[in-house]
Amino acid sequence: MALPCLAQSGEEIGSELGSNIIQSLWKHLKSRAGYLVHYKKKVKKLKECFEHLKKVRNDINRSVETAKRKGEVINDVVTAWLEKVNELETEVVNMEKEVGQNERCLKGCSPNYCWRYQLGKEATKKKADVEGLREEGKFDSISQLPPPPTIESMPVGDFMAFSSTRIAMDKVMNALEDENKHLIGIYGMGGVGKTTLMEEIGRRLQKDKKFDAVIKVVVSQNPNIEQIGREIAEELGMTLWGSGEPAARKLATRLRKEKKIAIMLDDIWARLELKDIGIPFGDDHKGCKILLTSRKSEVCDLMETDASVLVDVLSEEDSWDLFKSKAGNVVETSDVEPVARKVAKECGGLPLAIVVVGRASRGFIERSVWDDALRQLKESTPTNLEGVEEQLYKSLELSYKRLKTDEMKVVFLYCCLFREDYDISEDELTRYAVGEGLLKGVYALEDVRSRVHFLVEKLKASCLLLPSDKVGCVKLHDVVRDVAVYIASKDDKHFFVKAGLGVRDWPEGENLEACKRISLMNNYLQALPDQPNCPRVVTLLLNINPITAGIPNNFFQGMAALKVLDLSDTDIESLPSSLARLTNLVTLRLDRCQKLQHIMMVEKLKKLEILGLQKCRVSVLPEEIGTLVNLKLLDISNCSALGIPSNLISKLIRLEELYMIGCNANKDLLAEIAFLKRLARLHVYVRDAKNFPQDFLPVNAWENLRQFIIYNEFDWFSLASLYRRNFYLKGVSNSLNWAKVFLGKTEDLILDDWRWDIVNLVKLDEQNGFAGLKKLRITRCHRIVCLLDTTQVAPSNAYRDLEIINLWNLDNLKRICQGQLAALSFGKVRILDIMRCKKLNNIMSCDLLQRVNCSLEELAIKQCDEPRVVFNFDGLQQGSIMLPNLSKLTLQLLPNLTTIWTGVVSQGSLQKLSTVEVSSCNKLAYLFSCQLDTGHQRLLPPGTFMNLKELKISRCRGLSSLFWPSMVHELLRLERLELKDNEAVEKIVAEENGVRLEKGAFPLLKDLLLINLSNLSSFYGGEPETIFLDWPSLKYIKLGGCPSLKRLPIGPESAPKLKKVHVAGDDDVEWFHNLEWEDASIPSRFHIWLGKEAAEQAVEAKRLLQQGIFSSASRPPPPSFEYTAPGDFMDFTSAREAMEKVFDALEDEKMHLIGIYGMGGVGKTTLMEEIGGRARRENMFNAVAKVVASQKPDTDKIQHAIAERLGITLPKDVHLAAAELASRIKKEKKILILLDDVWDRLELKKDVGIPFGEDHRGCKILITTRKAQVCRTMESDTAVPVGVLSDKDSRVLFKSKAGEVIEDPDLKPLSNEVVKECAGLPLAIVVVGRALRGCDKKSVWEGACPAATEASYS
Fold this sequence. Notes:
The model is unreliable at 1-14, 148-157, 1092-1127 and 1346-1354 (pLDDT under 50). Helix 1 crosses helix 4 (113-136), helix 11 (316-327) runs parallel beside helix 13 and helix 34 (1322-1331) runs antiparallel to helix 35. The strands form nine sheets. The protein has a 24-stranded parallel beta sheet. The protein has a five-stranded parallel beta sheet with strand order 4-5-6-3-7. The longest helix has 36 residues, at 2-37. It contains 35 helices and 47 strands. It has 1354 residues and is α/β, with parallel strands linked by helices.
């Protein structure tokens, strides 16, 4: 039964399965047959279907074109869809063509069934693709709005990497990398390139991928907080809805999602509340850095930036390069270049000015056109220079318009009355401001000065005024001054400014009738018109003009409104009668009118408040001056022969300021002055002060005196510079009751050679205890025992504000303070300088050390016999950090000093100590550690000297070594190590148990000097002896007089930056080569520089000998170029500027012949040698040869000298020699030839045989000469002047030659005078300085002044 059922079931299943298979197979065969039978129909349907797709595509294409015209960005999916449709269209067209071609080929032939099948199948598939694309083409949107432009998309053409922008960029980049700095300000005057710099920084940040996002937003003058937030959001791809705090929160949340983001806010004019915008930074978001630009440094202050970076103007050479790039090649033609350079110079290094003027000048071909452009710029009237007014002047005028007060605006405009590059003193501005009444609501002179200073500082912060090198002065940038003149000359301001333009005649053709302020200062006016029509003029500046014809009597007839008149520095011999008509005159300056002898006419000027008679030759101050009851300021400084009638000064009851510098006041005159109740400022020379009686002044004298300089040594006035109240007296033999009021008020006190009986200095001011004193210098006051003795009655605030103490030549000084110090005493002392105090033993008592602990920055102890220890930390509170601000320690000639520091010192002490100088301390055995039987013991805790940069040890005979390895490993910042004349030193680094010297020791050391160390046997005394240090920063080594030293820790890979080794003597050259080297090739890596004493010209030395004050002036002959001592070159400003220009020329492929010119003795040869040495060290040339040409050049000698440097011998015939020398020079790919002391044209190519220019582009020639004309006759490509030294640099050079003796208080004024007489001429300074070295006789120094004068003019 079961089997039949199963069989039946099997049949049913098999029948059903077979039927399904047959149906499926038939369906498959039918579709396949359809490809074959209906292939044409399928191709036709594909074409119909695609035609519909084409219409859709065309519609989308039209939408795409419309979107593109609107600047929108096409969606990627649309672009990809269009590409697919275009590809499919090609395939469909090809298929149609294939069908047509096949039908033509098959006429009369049997059909190709296989091809028909494939075609039908392909058409079916393509139709499905068309239908799919048609569905995909139903886009919601075709395009979207473009994103805001990124920093990378901004044009880069405006940025040029000049030195000033490079310096600013480095500072900004360093700040950006500092984790502690989040808000960085960039400031500078308008047009200096702040925005361009910011954009370049942004580009670099994106390129280097240092930030995940970099965003720039322009803030502008009237910032819209919500708009700034929206722009930041858009750059992050975010739409910011709403406003106020909710929007700020959303933006802040989004910004925090960026791990590192830089936000650049351009053109900020006032404080911006970043949190109101929604910018988190600092602790709120440490990864957010904000960069802002502003024209005002005060905006950076208001924004509380972590760093503020000034963008300075361009150097002269950079300015020229930028100007050339804008003005075109015409500026390099011989006719145009000189005036074009002057045009570029007028732009004052301001990039915007250079670009605008350069573009405006582009295409100027004729010299006359350039001359006119220069004249327009000089006169601040560039009306015909296209773009200058609109693009440059209007841009800078915006800074003026944004000044907050009218007072700031008028003071700024007043500054344009001075000539270009003038050092505008605040004192001058004050005297003029009082005259015009510029400042409202201030009447006392002291208040006016304060207001002027405040306004000047505000203008400096706005970058409209620049700081000056002169104390109390500011300057106007040339272009900013031009803009100020432009502003002041239009509308209703009525300025007429022709200062410093070489004007020789009164401007008759100008309309001066409406002018209020006329400045013709600093010109060549010889004569003035009889009666100019200037009825509205309020200020007239005619100073610094000859006016040899005098002032016509009627000149001031029509100037009734005049309030300020300056006739200083003119040659007028008398005052015109019309001066009496100036009844409104408030300020009259007649300073340095040295031919003017009578000023009777001044008595008519009853409103006069300011009268300047500085350095006039007026013999007697007229009695009638006493009638000027409104006079507030009288300046009779340096009127050395001026007689002042009795009781005249006392009549000037409103006098607030009296200046009598170099004008002696006897006791009667001083008593008169003391009665002036309103007197606030007094500068007076009291020659006979030491003879004044005790009580000749009233008790209530000097009630309102706020600022004074009182002195009795003629040249001591120059010592006053930092403080408002200065009192300097010398040779006093009694306690001078009259001076006590000054002693109680003074901030700067000098007491020299006082012989009174006071042993406790504070007794001089028992009432105040010198509480307000800031600087104290006592010298040769041999009865002084201490400055403060609190065992006696003493004020609790004695020496409260004292910052600087100089104690020199005090034979009986035993201690600085005696007894327990009061709470406020000596707590601000920054500098303590002690010299030649024979009995001073305990310099830093425990009490004093605790008091100066936090304030002391510099300590110098020199030539004191008693001290055995400098710092004794015993007895101090445990755990206290000691001397955290001490940066410099100088110890010289301390014969009994055994240790510098003793006692327990806490970790973290002395952390700022950067310079230590120890000299002639023969009992000093240890500096940093002391030797024990069990090893060594540190005198100070680890890390104490981590910031030490400079260590100089000389003539200390007790030192056997300097460091232990553990100490060396802490000297991570040491840059200079100098050891001289330490005969007992055996090792620099001694052996230490358990610690080895590491290869990476001294990582920042740049200079190493080991001189006259006769027992030095090794640098390192531990194992292994053959250790080599890496010396990654070492650039300079000087060695000499170390005969026992056999090895230096320098290996094959050591000191990659070291190019030369300076040895002290001839024997040291051989010694250096014979040292034990790991690799015999190591010494050949270095250029050996043999130092010899610099040569001196015999003529100058002979002149000085004739004065009878010098023992010897002979010198060896000049050294050859290879052996020139680098010490002769000092990096002063003038030399540095000249060197930079020369190296720029050397690197310029277009320049081959470069001239250096300057007066004799200015340092041209020294500069040339330094350039040659540096060029060789830096491998700029394959060969460097120096030859002296001299006044009578010998061509043969010049040829053979060059040949000798190149290692060849020349034939005797000069013509053959020239040909052979030229051939040899051409073999040097790059060669530098130095021709020193050229006096006339040399035929370098034809006669000497030096090929250059087109003949040999790799040959550069550098010449020195005393005449600029020689540079022109030699047709040099550029000529670089070498100027004399500045006063500051002159002083530095003189001190390096004359020694510390010039700091002696007796000699310092004389040494200043000697330096001054040398007139900045290096040769004169060096010769005179060496001749006076170590000389402490005042009479010799007094005789040196004429010798110095002669040396400077020789």
